[in-house]
Structures are given as structure tokens and as C-alpha cells.
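WARN retry 2 of 3 for item q-0093 after timeout on previous attempt; input resubmitted unchanged.
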Amino acid sequence: MISGSSIANVVTTGTFTIPTMKRMGFSAVKAGAIEVAASVNGQIMPPIMGAAAFIIAEMLGITYFQVITHALIPAVITYLALFFIAHIEAHKHGLIRMEVKDIPPIWPTFISGIHYLIPIVVLIYLLIIERWTAGSAVFYTIITMMIVIIGQRIWLREGKVFDKIVYGFVEGLADIFGGMVGGAINMVPVAVAIACAGIIVGAVASTGLSNAMVEVVEIVSGGNFYLLLLMVMGLCLVLGLGLPTTANYLVVAALLANVVVEIGNASGYVLPLIAVHLFVFYFGLMADVTPPVGLAAYAASGISRADPIKTGIQAFWYEIRTAILPFVFIFNPELLLIGITSFWHGLSIFILSLIAILCFTAATQGWLLTRLKLPEIFCLLVVSVALFRPDFVVNLVSPPYETLGASIKSPLAFEEKRNIRIHVTRSTEYGDRFKLFNFPGRMGEPSTIPDYLGIILRTSEGSYFVDQLTYNGLAKKAGIEIEDQITLTEISNLKTLGREWGYSAGLLLLALIGFFQWRRWRNKENIS
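OK item q-0093 returned
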């Protein structure tokens, strides 16, 4: 979590967690895979998040505190789901807990290393409580760390007091020098990546390449937003084969983050920029666990003495729970605490999201209270969708917009202030581009949508084209252009169901699955 490197996390903690898991009865492959999954997720867990959180804050012009606030719920629920995976694996193989005599005493062990937490506490205090800038907080944290290093050397040094102070101080300075050299070496690839990303951003902004990229990517994806997200995911995974996580994030975010936002808006989705950047970052770190490279899996297999490819495949299967979260918070920003109105609202989102990811984890592992049957796995996936995306489930039954079709020229009243959506296809030198325009309805006399928006339409081969625009009209202000083809006109439906219906349906289905699972588990216990 602190190093910002999946491999460093594996090597640091895996040296004692992997042998412990093997001693408990886990296979070498699964012990290594669990460590890989935990280490990779260390980069998404606040309050540190490696170096990425600072860079995201800098690129978006927001505070570090805002970044870790948005990243909190996805990180916590994915770790809790990993604990659930370990619990499921233990149940599958009938593993038992360690003997009490083999467990080191908690408090003496914790107290012996508590001084290592001092710099972390200082960093978190300065960033979250005092709200200092990242640079100032890190500077004083490093000073604190130096004091701790020297104090530790003096404390552990044996001999007379004078010798302890002098020699301990010198040894501490040597450790600090070595750490500064190591830190500088580790920062070289990050600095190069940031410099290159700056060049890319500057070139894109000054040459107008961003507009061309939007058009090219839109043509390649066919205007399909889901396909675009898959393309970005694939690019992150491919670049991650040769780039560190931070460099991978910088390159893809600089090139495609704004493209995703614009095409998403054209598809009817309001995308917060932080959601898109976290989407890119999540799949950047997933490259460390994706076969056939998966460098973190190779590091873990060196400790567990297992096959690295098998370890990587198993770790990837465990990490599917993390891979779905970027798609969830792209379409449901509440997972990032965006649009949360109160503490209880946020708490409910956390609880429902946790239940959803645990259901998804159970489905992928084929086990809840006991082994799952295929229909139960399918139903758990449905529950996950209902709790992660309640609006998706509700919209299947009660669409939020109704299509007007030929009635676009019929007079409509907007007493209820219903919203209007206009889907437009625009011809460019790169091909057709797809745009979406939203217009709020207003109270007044009934009128046709073209008159209301300030558009004069031309009909050609059964299609509507913009022939003229009224000066200072709503359509002209929004950016509709002459010769745009209006492919679809929609008006909001006032009789849509609330999101709570989606949550209720998911929880009801989960209760039904739980009942059948409990009954089979109880029968199995009675037989044994």
C-alpha cells in the first residue's frame, strides 16, 4: 500500500504470508495468488495509494483528500471480498485455524514495530486533517522518517551511551543516504513517465489532436460506449506489460480520458472525470496480475515455489472482483461517493456495494454457504447487477425516456418540466460522429419540439436534417449544427420506478438463494 509497487508489496509481505498460508494447508499456487491479489490492490487502498493519488490530484486539479475519498469504498469492498475468497478456499478444502501456540503474541509484536507507523500517521494527519499540499506533507513526513531511522539505530545499538549516540547516529545517516539513493533510482521511471505525459498533453492541447482523436476513436468504436471502454481496458493491459502502473496511467489518461468523457456524454452518460481516471488507473494496475506476463505473480511464485503461470491465472481469477469495479463506478458514480447527500446515504451505498461484490465473488468461486449450482451462480450475478446498477434493472421495466418518433412535429406541453434528448449524427471528414443534446422542458404554451428548440427541419428519405437554426435559440446555443441528422428524439418518462425497486429486487433474490443454500448446508451437516 505504501510502496506503490505490486512487486515490492509481494516481496515485502509475501515472505511471511505465503509460508504461513502454505503451513495452514493452502496450495502453493493459491497462497501465491492470494498474496498477489492483496499486493496489487495495495495501490488502490487509501490513504496512501502509492504515487498515483498525488498524480491524479495534480492532473485533475483537485485535492489529495478528494481523491482518496472517491477511492475509499471500491478499495475497502474489494479487500473485504478478498477476505471472503480466503474464507471460501478454506471451507472448500476443510482447512482449520492455526494452533494458538504458533500465533505470535499480538500486542508485543505490534509494539515492537509501532515506530514504523509514525511517518504514516504524520503523512495522513498533514494531508487529511491539516489539508496541506502533497509536496509539503511528503517533505515533513520524510523528515519524520529520518528522525525515526536515526532514533531506531541509537536505540538498538549496544554499548555505552556516548557510543550508542555517535555510532547509532552515523549508521542512521548511512541508512538515510541509502534510502535517498534508492528513492531517487525508483523515481527515475516515474519522472520520465510524467515528463513524457506532459509532452503528450502539451502536444494534444496545442495541435488540436484531441478533437481528431475523439473522432478517430469514435469511428473505431462505432460510437458504442461499451466497446470504447473495452478498448481502453485492453490498451491499459497491453501497455502495462512494459510500463509501471503509474506510467501506464499517465499515458492512457493523457490520451483517452477526455475522449471517454465526450463519447460517454454522447451516449447519454454523465461521467465525472475522476471516475474515468480511476477507470484507467485500475486497469493499469491489473496488468501486474494479467497472464502471460503478470510480474507480481512471478515474484510470488519465487517465494511459494509454484508455477508462475498457474499462480498468475489463479490470481487473475481472484482479481475479477476488482476488474468489475471500474465498470460499476463509471455507470454508478455513487460508488465513488459522488452525489451522496448524507452520511446514511453513503453508508447504505457501502453496505449494498459490499453485498453486491460478495455475491459476485461467491458466483466466481462457485461457493456461498456450500457449493453453488449453475442456476444459483446465474442468480447471484443478477443480484450483483441489481445492487451495483439498480437503475439498469429498473430501466428494463420502466424506461426513463420514451421515443417520440414521428410525433416530433406534434405540439407538446411541458407542464411537468420534462427533459428532451436529441440524438444527432454529424458527418465529418473522419466519418460520422454521434452526439447527444439534453434540453430541459419549461412550462408554457404547447409547442412542437423544433419550434421550442429553434430548429427548422428538412425531411430527406425518411430522415430529419437540420436545415436552419434560429439565432440565439436553444439548439444553436447547445452546439447543434446545420445538416446534422436527428436520428432519435426522446422525452423523459415521469412514471419511472425509483432505484429502491432495483435494490429490493436484488435483496429479495439474494434471500431466496440464501434460503436454498442454508437448507442444503444444514442437510449436509446433519448427514455428516
